[in-house]
Amino acid sequence: MAKEDYGQLAKEVVAAVGGKENIVNVTNCMTRLRFVLKDDTIPNKDEVSKIKGVKGVMNQGGQYQVIIGTHVSEVVKFVKTEAGITENSKAVNKEDYQVMKKDSLWNRFFKVISGCIMPMIGPMIAGGILKGILVILTTIGVLTNTDGTYLVLYAAADAILYFMPIIVGFSCGKIFDCNPYTTATIGATLVYPNLVAAIAAEGGITFLHIPVSTTTYANTLFPIILASFFASKVEKLAKKVIPQMIQLMIVPTIVLAITVPLSYLVIGPVMQYVSNGLSTIVCAIFNFSPILGGLLFGAFWQLVVLLGLHAAFIPVLINNLVTLGSDPINAILGLTVWALAGVALGYSLRTKDPDKRSAGFGSLASALCGVTEPAIYSIAVPNMKLFACAWVGGGISGAILGGLGAKLYALAGDGFFRIPGMINPAGLDISFYGFIACAALAFIVSAVLAYIVQGKEEKKN
């Protein structure tokens, strides 16, 4: 689609989802416009799907998702303009995120979590890729971990994780309808160097004679989310009792004076226990049978992507990574992309239609770069037998990788970009070599099966 058509596409999509009055916010992922709507019963799925340039529609996980393609990052600019959403607009409102009070509790919770976390996914993936590259460079002796070049690049890679409470705090402020700079400041206090050092020192510190937990909050996610939610309640209450003339100064003072101590004394420790418990439970289920877990995740993860629910797992996967330092589950998920890439290759080599062959190779290239939606919607969904080929290839390779005990050590992209994230900071091990071998296996098995299945389809036609 030509750029000059983006404006018309945006106009039609905005109108079809209920107009700008029905749009709370809109963001995008690799291929989809992700709308948060006040009333998601207004759009007619068939009408939205008929719009030229729209490849599909999903209404899952609290988001109305309009599938556009890899050029969605350009389209979303026109959509935001059409919807009247700017950086300074009051587009995100906590009450709106409740979807007129009638949406499910799960969807409302997911919208909040998604809004808090999704903005930082890109930089987190970039950090994972940088860390992988640095491990490779130190392993082959190009750099050492004391070189200035290494230290600067490692800081660029690790900063978003270390200072996560600040970044997430800012996003939470927008979602919870609270001053985002106040919530970012609350996040900053959780990693404030002098305070962290004092708490960690022998004997620790007290606040009003109450001992402060020695828990550290760098690389944490859930404590700042709950702290920001509490801060929004305090701010709302303070604005009711403080005269408007002095609210600018006094309201943040009250919010910080109440929320920061409470974060250290109650919110932080409680949420850390919850966070650690969540990671322990998830990993315990997986560790009960890594082979079975690898088989199931490797086979059917892309079905979760198809349903648009994959973002719901992001908090758990990120929490595993920052709490445990590695994640065996996300290691498996990377294989499913290679399985779909294999399906795209087998399909492309076998189909006789030049247009389908061209689209197939395009989907292959996209999948190898980590974007699976083109392969899903143009190849797998129209013929579920081809999708099943990816399930087989991903399931077999996932079971093997799970049995090998491989782990993801840094959040990275998918396809080729996943490989750096599989590098153990201590050096190359089975996670790296096993992932490459299993990715190749998923790719080859899926490609061969897809070639056979597509061949049978060609004979039918």
From TrEMBL:
Presence of the UniProt keyword Transmembrane helix in the record: yes
Transmembrane segments: 150-170, 216-234, 246-267, 273-296, 303-322, 328-349, 386-410, 430-453
Gene3D superfamilies: Glucose permease domain IIB
Pfam families, A to Z: PTS_EIIB, PTS_EIIC
Gene name for this UniProt entry: bglF_1
Subcellular location: Cell membrane
Topology versus the membrane: Multi-pass membrane protein
Predominant subcellular localization, coarse grouping: membrane
Record protein name field: PTS system beta-glucoside-specific EIIBCA component
